[in-house]
Structure prediction request, 210 residues.
Amino acid sequence: MARYGINPESNYGVKVSTLREMAKEIGKDHELALELWDSGIHDARILAPLIEDKALVTENQMDRWVSVLDSWDICDNACALFTSTEWAYEKAVEWSRSDEEFVKRAGYVMMARLAVRDKKADNSTFEAFFPHIRRGATDERNYVKKAVNWAVRSIGKRNLALRKRALELAREIKNIDSKAARWIANDAIRELENIKTIEAIRRKDSGGKE
Prediction:
């Protein structure tokens, strides 16, 4: 786990597939989710969002959970839950301004996940993230820059119009005098200019009729 950047502290090493099976057996249980998270055990904090009832999640709970993140897998798993709340867009921006590595990562993971999850949002909703993505592109910390890159790619793959805008953003970022910014931009451009990616976006735009 340590080799893959997962915090091995307070970690029993239970496979995620096993935790997902446990979540199916348990069902939704808000109180148990809170207890599991408060245990501080890595595996329990993976399970907690899987059984949490999204209708009962509070803004305070989101801030409290994100403040103790110490591993990318817990961060990403919690954000999968948080994107279904009414505070998702607000927190994406707020957390992206943080100096804390995993809080900041959470902000950009939220942007990436919202780009996939929120089918009804218009393009301007995601273009509003661009200044925050540009700001975060100079962060050299591995888990932040990877999340910034994820946000650019996910937004760009929503539709052809956003692909064009995301490529413009990536080229702007590439001109920033920063090693992290160049990596983020080059990787995003490579994927968004890939013919298979373009074909997949076209199929999405046409409703899968091509």
